[in-house]
Design a protein that fits this description.
The protein has 254 residues and is of the alpha/beta class. It contains eight helices and eight strands, in the order ββαβββαααβααβαβα. It has one domain: 3-Layer(aba) Sandwich (Uracil-DNA Glycosylase, subunit E), CATH 3.40.470.10.
Length: 254
């Protein structure tokens, strides 16, 4: 991981890693207005117990994040690294991207990735929906870590912003990151460090990068010359078949 004085990243283990942010050392830290209040409100919006996800002592913010791709020895097909906005607390808690929708229903992202030929179909039927999602998560993680997610591609998953937020409420998704750190620190500090983190992964080298979230695309373009595919996950052209077409036509990278 890229060394710096403000954000430190641990090694990835089984799809997760720890981030330590030295808040008082960040240039412009005086701009972190109402940070204590906001971090408490974010925690209050989470349905899950987050005591093992966030730690904040007034000077340092320590949290768990997620990135998942196979070790180098398993990479023998074209690599695709999907870069989402930021993690959901719910997924961090259950140790897998897109663990479930509300009421433990299957997350729709997996159907899209199946249609894009990025991961094989995984369906486990069980009257206990939580147990079914847990078994599916274990199987998908096993496929990705072994480089066998699909016959066509070697799949990797990460997020641009490493900080996890709730899936609902005032601080959901990237909005929570933006409200917590503020525009100035986000654009002058966080954007640069998170870009360097993504580019530091050996998996990223020669991989097709796919960005799905608006501010993440803007941040990455400002801090890197790497080309990437723009694939929205909502609205027009957001289906798995749309992504499959873009992967088939690398000239569409931006």
């Amino acid at each position: 991981m890229p060394p710096n004085k403000f954000m430190k990243y641990s090694k990835i283990s089984n799809g997760q890693y720890t981030v330590t942010v030295n808040l008082r050392g960040i240039p412009g830290s005086e701009k972190l207005q109402n940070f204590d209040e906001i971090i408490d409100e974010i925690a209050g919006d989470c349905d899950d117990d987050i005591s093992d996800i966030y730690r904040y002592d007034g000077n340092r913010l320590i949290y768990t994040s997620e990135t998942l791709f196979p070790p180098k020895r398993y990479v023998n097909k074209p690599k695709v690294l999907l870069v989402f906005g930021n993690p959901a607390v719910h997924s961090i808690k259950n140790k897998m991207f897109f663990f479930s929708r509300a009421k433990n229903l299957r997350h729709g992202m997996w159907g899209k990735l199946e249609k894009a030929n990025l991961i094989n179909r995984v369906r486990i039927n069980d009257d206990d929906l939580l147990r079914a999602r847990m078994r599916e998560a274990e199987e998908r993680k096993k496929l990705i870590l072994s480089g066998q997610a699909s016959e066509k591609y070697c799949l990797g998953l990460t997020t641009f912003y490493s900080f996890p937020t709730p899936v609902s409420g005032r601080f959901r998704d990237v909005k929570g990151v933006e409200k917590l750190f503020g525009k100035q620190i986000l654009e002058n500090v966080i954007w640069s460090f998170e870009t360097k983190r993504i580019l530091s992964y050996p998996f990223t080298k020669d991989a097709i990068l796919v960005f799905v979230q608006k501010s993440s695309k803007k941040a990455f373009k400002k801090n890197s010359k790497r080309k990437f595919i723009d694939w929205p996950v909502r609205g027009k052209n957001s289906g798995g078949a749309d992504l499959a077409k873009k992967l088939y036509r690398p000239a569409e990278k931006v």
